[in-house]
């Protein structure tokens, strides 16, 4: 499976491998003129109206959006709503996914929409605003830019920490979208989608957006696997190679240590499985890990460190593993395992860094039966939390350079 430009299989980004249970807490988020939204910061030549000719989420059946118009005389303002009270001491995160249509922007370099997130109450001495550039809460009102150099401006703010040291109870959060730091002249935006996702700290990044109505929406996990005969044809315990290319939703530095993120997982039966994982660490390098578990036998773990780099959604990770049987292959010894990775910039595809390590299988016998193959998740209900852009499994081995560049 791979994603080809202009020929997406399901999404142009790939296959979304994401868990469930997070809540989308921004209500009526498809149109900022809906119930619960209000105009704030309005001054000068500014109007906010519902537009039924421009729909931001038309494929969902919602046929309106908020038109934010800044006239020839210059003006500022936008729309705001409450996200409700969120826990102040649970280690939770908020993630934002905001889309604005840059309908008419004469000078994109200086004319752009902004978003602001602030919290109030809960015993805080003053309102606190989220500064996404410096990734901290501040008492200074702060507005973060939404890009205006493309037809649609998209902002994804990952892993905003909700813990509030100065609070004694849960503060109330508010989100606003528009222009607030200065006037705009002869500019029009259409605003929404504005999705705010509340999660625990194992997610650490915005998942795909959800469209809400009058109550928070709880996500159901996306599970992807091939059962039985299909898995048996693909995966052979005696020898093979697996390559996965993925773009994470998360900020790796914000994940709990050892919160395993499965890339590909071959499940034989209870107590028997092979897997390629991303494993975050605290105080040391994150890992690409190949694991073989056979009940009653020594577990094989081969770890390849991603040296001095915390991946984010700005990166594309390609991870691979090659395992060999009694015959070995070329200069590689029998029962050897090689695990490697390459990290690229998502924006232009340039290589950031790569690496590989060699190891040895602890258990050299055949492993059967081959029951299922899981992509971006596993039989233990763990999820990679990102886009799976490409995966491939072959019985015949490949060199690391082929895994990195050719598939």
Topology:
Layout lengths: L14 E3 L5 E2 L13 E14 L13 E21 L7 E12 L9 E7 L7 E4 L4 E3 L5 E2 L6 E10 L10 E13 L2 E13 L17 E2 L6 E3 H7 L5 E9 L12 E9 L2 E8 L6 E9 L5 E7 L8 E9 L12 E10 L5 E10 L11 E4 L10 E9 L5 H6 L2
Antiparallel strand pairs: 1-24, 2-12, 2-13, 3-4, 4-11, 4-12, 5-10, 5-12, 6-7, 6-9, 6-11, 7-8, 14-23, 15-20, 15-24, 16-17, 16-23, 17-18, 18-19, 20-21, 21-22
Tell me what the structure shows.
The protein is mainly beta. The protein has 2 domains: about 190 residues, Galactose-binding domain-like (Jelly Rolls); about 180 residues, Jelly Rolls, CATH 2.60.120.200. Helix content is about 5%, strand content about 45%. Strands 2, 3, 4, 5, 6, 7, 8, 9, 10, 11, 12 and 13 form a 12-stranded antiparallel beta sheet that branches. A 6-stranded antiparallel beta sheet has the order 1-24-15-20-21-22. A 6-stranded antiparallel beta sheet has the order 14-23-16-17-18-19. The radius of gyration is 24 Å and the shape is elongated. The termini are close together.
